[in-house]
Sequence to fold (296 residues):
Amino acid sequence: MERSNLFWLSALSFSATYFGRGFLRILCVPIALFFLLTAREGRASSQAFLAKVLPHRPNWWHTFKHFYTFALVSSDRLLFLSGKSDRFNLDLVGDELIRSHSRKGKGCILLVSHLGSFDAMRVPAVERKYIRLRILIDKQHNPAAMQVFEQLNPQLAADMIDASVPPTTLALTLNEALSDGQMVGIMADRSGLGEPTHQLNFIDGQANFPTGPWMLSMTLKVPVFLCFAIYEGGNSYRIRFHQICDGEPVERKHRQDKLQENMQQYANVLEQYARAHPFNWFNFYDFWTDESTLNK
Fold:
């Protein structure tokens, strides 16, 4: 679903710039209907997820609402990228964690997910200049989106760290950014092709989560923070920060246990938000491990 083509992204970008958010809310209705009618895998994944978290069996209206929320949050992303965050009501809780850490002049890892708005989260760190935020992203995954984002916010595009570069180059870039006191934002709920994962308990099942961010934290001894920017309707986003680990050294013999403990804590917090705000869940694919593989 997220591999939207350049036409849709350009249309949303043009509408956000020239017609405002009211028009975008209307435009998102046919977009959501289009996905409801044509995205068979996304529709099935939406219903499977909603069946886990809603107190009743989901129907077509719940799936439409799910797609509509995704379309609206995606279009709001264009406004955030364009520097128009003043059009939104952003309720911040826990951002003193980031402010306090930034005064130490040390780097940190900020873990985000495909739940809510990643770009609403950027406002405290970037626009309020708490700490320089570098975003780790695979630029080859969705080149159409990258083209639009580079046009909207060249500075943000320049600060992105391309995850598709060779591993050695990527490791050096990440080490340099964190050593320079910067914050590296990483999506922690999906793994890339061939990326090491760990199986965790998550919403009445088990799912694979990438180990990379957690290994990076242990290796470079930097703290890990979480952020969730939840869309709450209208023009309101609620932004919450949490700290998982402080970056203190861990003895080699305890690293695996600590890694699993930190990752499960992250999955527990993610589950808490997913259950409380189900229509903000934007992983439209079979997120859970196939039952036949659980005991292998």
Q: What stands out?
A: The first strand starts at residue 89 and ends at 93.
